[in-house]
Write a structure and sequence with these properties.
about 425 residues; alpha/beta; two-stranded antiparallel ribbon; 11 strands; about 10% strand
Length: about 425
């Protein structure tokens, strides 16, 4: 059953009775599987469920033909299984301060179980924070690698504002929107998770080596592949399903029609998570994919407040009301406001004419005109009354300071 307030399946709450913690042998076997099979291999997931990780790895090393595999496929698995050295991989992870988190571990994010046959065999994790706890309050921010200045700006602001509000920003550590979202979160000394398509010891892209190091130090770096593994195009696509499942919702900032970030959004939708998009210029090809997403069932968001109100818990994470600035005329009593609205934009009008237009008596209208005159809204020109100053109806009253920004008005930094 899905909780509509969070988009996360309620059945993914940790329950040790459903899946006991792995034994040391099972952990070792699962680590081996991350080198034997590609991420998301549903056939291997079936064997893990039916035979268990230890027996699956034993059978593959022995070259036994497992159900539904066939000889050719079995031979490929066996070749990898015989070359796998999970003890070495676990030692390499420990040397860099990383760990291997398995299903059944207290730190395992149970929302990943929603992936069913595509659930990770385990996750290699760099960073000291609790992956399970961080993932419970996380939002994915993804988008184009070759983004515009607008896309980079919006991603950075989202990352910073979400972090300041106590949310964990999840992305793929790639160029463009991903990197901007991570940097925004880090700049606010916030929490961020980088989901990589390589080993957590392989900085990719190389130009983000410093950023990836900062993510591992200040946040968490996670991946499905063992140490030393390099990414491939297919692994990037598979990585997106983890981003979608791990978080409460996915925000897309700039994306063309064939963008990988739209794959993440589609997976998020099928998993029952919230799908959001930041609109861009209609003339920009980098906004076409986002706009198509919004035309379907994505939700338009323009800032962190929109995102938090959508993915947050009902009654606890409502965004502030946003409105334009309060003008001095907004503070006028209704009767005075009606008279002010009756004053023509150009030229002037007599009291009797204004009384008819405002729907009041001449005496009451004259009293309101003197009140408006004292406040600096109107001035007298012989028998006529007209708007005062070039600012017209929006002129500030005499002696008043310029109106300040309302509490709900958002400022982009």
């Amino acid at each position: 059953m899905t909780d509509a307030s969070s988009g996360v399946d309620e059945t993914t709450a940790p329950d040790p009775e459903e899946e006991p913690p792995p034994t040391p042998e099972e952990r070792l076997a699962r680590a081996a599987v991350t080198r034997i099979a590609d991420p998301g291999d549903e056939l291997v997931a079936t064997w893990l469920g039916e035979l268990g990780p230890v027996e699956t790895v034993r059978a593959l090393i022995a070259g036994e033909e497992l159900p539904r595999a066939g000889q050719a496929k079995t031979a490929g698995y066996t070749q990898r299984a015989r070359r796998a050295d999970p003890e070495r991989d676990l030692a390499a992870a420990r040397a860099m301060g990383a760990r291997f988190v398995c299903p059944g571990d207290p730190d395992w994010p149970r929302q990943l179980d929603d992936l069913r046959g595509e659930r990770p065999y385990g996750l290699w994790v760099r960073g000291g924070a609790s992956l399970r706890m961080w993932a419970l309050r996380s939002v994915a921010v993804v988008g184009a690698r070759a983004c515009t200045d607008y896309g980079s700006h919006m991603a950075a602001v989202l990352g910073a504002d979400l972090a300041e509000a106590g949310w964990v920003v999840v992305s793929g550590a790639a160029y463009g929107v991903d990197g901007a979202a991570h940097r925004g979160s880090l700049s606010a000394t916030g929490a961020t998770i980088g989901v990589v398509a390589s080993g957590v010891d392989v900085p990719y892209p190389p130009g983000h080596a410093e950023l990836i190091g900062r993510i591992a130090e200040q946040g968490l770096l996670i991946g499905e592949l063992p140490p030393g593994s390099h990414p491939t195009r297919r692994r990037f696509v598979l990585r997106n399903r983890v981003i979608a499942a791990l978080t409460r919702g996915t925000v897309v900032v700039e994306a063309q029609y064939r963008s990988g970030s739209l794959i993440t959004a589609r997976r998020a939708r099928t998993l029952g998570r919230f799908v959001m998009g930041v609109p861009g210029p209609c003339t920009s090809a980098l906004s076409q994919g986002v706009h198509e997403l919004l035309r379907a069932d994505g939700t338009l968001v323009t800032g962190a407040a929109d995102v938090i109100e959508l993915v947050g818990l009902i009654g606890e994470d409502l965004g502030p009301e946003r409105r334009g600035p309060v003008l001095p005329r907004d503070l006028l009593p209704p009767a005075a406001a009606r008279v002010l609205e009756a004053v023509p934009a150009r030229g002037g009008a007599g009291c009797a004419e204004l009384a008819v237009a405002a729907g009041g008596t001449s005496d009451d209208t004259l009293a309101r005109l003197h009140e408006l005159h004292a406040l600096g809204f109107v001035e007298r020109d012989g028998p006529l009354w007209k708007l005062a100053g070039a600012a017209g109806q929006d002129a500030a009253p005499k002696g008043a300071s310029k109106p300040t920004r309302s509490a709900g008005e958002h400022t982009i930094r």
